[in-house]
C-alpha cells in the first residue's frame, strides 16, 4: 500500500533546535547548526504560507525578508521590524546567509582575554583586516546557548505572528508553533 506523505521540514528544523537547547552539551557546532535551522524553519514556513496565499505572484523569486513583508501586506498587516522578535528573525537570516555563503573573511574570537571563556561563548567577529586588534569590526556572530535560546523563541514568536496574520486554515501549523510538539511527517 502506498501512502501520500507530507514531509514537514520546518518541524524537523525546529525540533533539532529544541533538542539541542535541552541538551547538557553545547558546542560551536550546536550554535551554528541551530542558527541555520532557525533560519531554515522561517523560510520553510514562509514559503508554505505563500503557497497557500494565491494573492502573491512570483514569490519564489523574492528574498526571505521581502516574502515576509509581502505576506503581511497581502493580509493588511505590517511587520514591526523594531520589535525584538522580528529584529532577531532578521539577525538569524543575516547570520545564516553569512554562514551558508561564507567568503573566507577574517575572523577573530571576541569578548574576553581568557580563551576558555571565549570558547564557551562562541562570539566570532568578522574583521576588516587580519590585525586582531583592529577596531574596524563590522559584525559579531554569537553562537552561545543563551543567544540561540533567544533565536529559537524569536523564531516561534515571529512565525506565530505571521501565521495569525494570514489566518491560515492549517490548524496543524498553529498547533505545533504553540505546542512545540513536532511531527516530521503527515500521512494523508
TrEMBL record:
It comes from the Bacteria. It comes from Chamaesiphon polymorphus CCALA 037. This is Uncharacterized protein.
Amino acid at each position: 500500500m502506498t501512502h501520500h506523505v507530507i514531509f514537514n521540514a520546518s518541524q524537523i528544523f525546529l525540533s533539532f533546535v529544541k533538542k539541542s537547547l535541552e541538551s547538557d552539551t553545547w558546542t560551536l557546532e550546536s550554535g551554528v547548526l541551530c542558527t541555520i535551522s532557525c533560519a531554515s524553519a522561517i523560510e520553510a514556513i514562509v514559503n508554505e504560507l505563500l503557497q497557500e496565499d494565491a494573492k502573491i505572484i512570483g514569490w519564489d523569486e523574492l528574498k526571505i525578508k521581502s516574502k515576509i513583508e509581502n505576506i503581511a501586506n497581502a493580509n493588511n498587516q505590517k511587520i514591526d521590524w523594531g520589535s525584538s522578535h522580528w529584529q532577531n528573525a532578521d539577525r538569524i537570516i543575516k547570520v545564516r546567509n553569512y554562514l551558508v555563503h561564507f567568503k573566507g573573511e577574517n575572523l577573530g574570537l571576541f569578548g574576553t582575554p581568557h580563551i576558555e571563556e571565549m570558547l564557551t561563548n562562541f562570539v566570532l567577529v568578522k574583521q576588516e583586516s587580519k590585525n586582531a586588534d583592529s577596531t574596524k569590526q563590522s559584525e559579531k556572530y554569537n553562537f552561545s546557548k543563551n543567544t540561540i535560546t533567544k533565536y529559537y523563541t524569536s523564531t516561534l514568536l515571529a512565525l506565530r505572528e505571521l501565521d495569525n496574520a494570514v489566518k491560515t486554515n492549517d490548524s496543524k501549523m498553529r498547533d505545533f508553533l504553540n505546542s512545540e510538539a513536532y511531527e516530521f511527517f503527515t500521512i494523508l
